[in-house]
Amino acid sequence: MxxxxxIKPILDWLLALMLVVLATPxxxxxxxxxxxxxxxxxxxxxxxxxxxxxxxxxxxxTLRYNxxxxxxxxxxxxxxxxxxxxxxLPQLINVLxxxxxxxxxxxxxxxxxxxxxxxxKKRHDVKPGITGLAQxxxxxxxxxxERLDLDYQYTKKISFLLDxxxxxxxxxxxxxxxxxGSSITMPRFKGYQ
Length: 193
Fold this sequence. Notes:
Blueprint: H1 2-37, E1 42-48, E2 54-60, H2 76-84, H3 91-96, E3 101-103, E4 129-131, H4 144-157, H5 160-176
Parallel strand pairs: 3-4
Antiparallel strand pairs: 1-2
């Protein structure tokens, strides 16, 4: 299929470049406020991507720095960043580098790789995304199995129209359902019960 192999990466790169240019003033403002309110601006973590290749995923740091077990935002501004998903803006760099796509399964922790079923491992047959089918169907409000099932469904049905639908639903959820799981932290995936 031509779309996922050729057209999708080109569209991702062009859109990411345009958004980086447009969002640069906003990103500079966020970085300045984060620098004034906390020591660290960025959160960088290794995540497995396409074909399980590990890459550094970038986010604005919203969690407390000294206690990584405490996943609560460090102040009101970082709560706002997390709730609005503006903390994800640095992932545009991951898209420009070809490590991520706008739409695909969200990149999860490396330690989960050995816990997936053979079916759910197929989530790594495509590039991970900033948003995805699981994010527009409940985000952190659904179970791990439902989330991973949706990721697998995406890999089987990937198309331009599906990606467009997911992007439109993402914007709808951001503006009309801003609390749809954004402030809830998923428990760690421990395999299948």
